[in-house]
Design goal:
OB fold (Dihydrolipoamide Acetyltransferase, E2P), single chain, 8 strands, 1 helix, 36% strand, 133 residues, mainly beta, five-stranded mixed β-barrel
């Protein structure tokens, strides 16, 4: 099941450009605190949650993290898909779909990000086990 299509705006364009190259970006302030790239419903993070700095830059992450939680949600094709919250090794939590069989999903499972383009649109994150096809 593919994730729903995503759309870009001026603030998210750098994120989508990097995702098209297979790189997951997050926001980082001048003090080095990491923030999620986007809020759950697509709004941009505008200030550092740790220190309040509004001068955030896009920075590449390692694209690796641990599964925090997951759920089954309605998918765009009428079925369901697994949606996940993943804590990146850099610290922020990000949302994406989860390409791991239901019987293998456990809290703390190590994951790596990949990207899909639902309907040929913008790339969206999909998390899977490292080395998974």
């Amino acid at each position: 099941m593919s994730p729903p299509a995503a759309s870009r705006d001026e603030r998210s364009a750098p994120w989508f450009d990097a995702a098209a190259d297979g790189v997951l970006l997050a926001r980082r302030c001048r003090s080095g605190h990491w923030s999620a790239p986007m809020l759950f419903f697509g709004g941009a993070v505008l200030a550092c949650a740790t220190c309040g700095d509004v001068d955030l830059e896009w920075a590449p992450t390692a694209g690796r993290g641990s599964l925090v939680t997951w759920t089954e949600v309605p998918g765009p094709d009428g079925g369901t898909m697994a949606a996940a919250v993943v804590e990146l090794d850099e610290g922020p939590w990000v949302f994406g779909s989860l390409a791991v069989p239901a019987d293998e999903r456990v809290e703390g499972l190590r994951l790596v990000v990949g990207f899909e383009r639902p309907g040929g649109g913008e790339p969206v994150p999909v998390f899977a086990r490292p080395g998974a096809p």
